[in-house]
Amino acid sequence: MAGAEMSHHGARGGRVLDREQFIAYARKQQVMAVRLLAEHGQCAGGCGCGRPWPCPQQESLSVTADHYRARLALLDVTVVLPVVTPSVARPARRALRVLLSLISSAGSATLAAITARSNR
Q1: Do 100 and 51 have their domain in common?
Q2: Boundaries of domain holding 98
Q3: Does some domain include residue 114?
Q4: Sign of CA pseudo-dihedral 74, 75, 76, 82
Q5: How many CB atoms are located within 10 Å of the residue 17 CB?
Q6: How far is it, in rounded angstroms, from Cα 4 to Cα 10?
Q7: Residue 3 and residue 38: Cα distance in Å, rounded?
Q8: Is 24 in the same domain as 66?
Q9: What's the rounded Cα separation, in Å, for the pair 19 and 70?
Q10: For 60-69, what is each residue's pLDDT tens digit?
């Protein structure tokens, strides 16, 4: 066996997958579990598949779908965030401070007017 195909301690019966291979595998497993779950669901006679409710097949498929969904959430990149440079951030902070001071000034005047009306 080649090194990439050899199993190591903790691997289940086969070769060790790299990150991208595992992501592809996990996506397939999760999609298949969700597809199979479509055949299951509580109805008047038990499960949609004919088994009594709670259906052990439905429970197993739900656990499998959740397992791979959780693994993909940890491994799969979903959003690339932009890099904010200090030259862009400083003017924005300065503008925010000016805006907050204007709001604070207007808020103080409004608060004083409201207080004066309520004291009448």
Answers
A1: no
A2: 85-120
A3: yes
A4: positive
A5: 14
A6: 15
A7: 40
A8: yes
A9: 15
A10: 999 999 999 8
Rounded Cα distance, 5 and 21, in Å: 13
Nearest residue to 24 via CA among 72, 57, 70, 60: 72
Q: Per the structure, how many domains does the chain have? A: 2
Note the pLDDT tens digit of each residue in 108-119: 666 566 556 655
Pick 2 or 78 by higher pLDDT.
Answer: 78
| Non-local CB neighbours of 47 within 8 Å, separated by 6+ positions | 40, 41, 53, 54, 55, 57, 58
My answer on whether 20 and 48 are in the same domain is yes
CB atoms within 10 A of CB 69: 15
61 and 94 co-located in one domain? no
Share of the chain above pLDDT 90, in %: 12
Of the candidates 62, 13, 8, 11, the residue with the CA atom closest to the CA atom of residue 35? 62
Whole-number Å distance between alpha carbons of 59 and 40 = 10
